[in-house]
Design a protein that fits this description.
The protein is mostly helical. The chain has a domain of 60 residues: lambda repressor-like DNA-binding domains (434 Repressor (Amino-terminal Domain), Orthogonal Bundle), CATH 1.10.260.40. 57% of the residues lie in helices and 0% in strands. InterPro entries: Lambda_DNA-bd_dom_sf. This is Fis family transcriptional regulator.
Length: 100
Amino acid sequence: MKAKAQENAHLGSDFRDFLAEEGLLPEVEILALKRVVALQLQEILDEEHVTKTQLASRMKTSRASLDRLLDPQNPSLTVASLGKAAAALGRKVEVRFVPA
């Protein structure tokens, strides 16, 4: 009889489990959240035909600061900057905590 093949330790797990095991899950989730925020803001700018310069002016901030907010690779994000962007676009921000 053939020897039983070794069982795969990762069988049935998913990528999220892997990231958690490696201690990377919080960092990856934060970056994913930032990407979603940046994408949503860019979509609003495109839909409303608002330039980055116009939004920066409305927010009373620099264009460089706004570029950081819109950069999906930059995880830096504050509630204050979100609030300023939302108010400048006639929107509001909703933040929720959900079970992990």
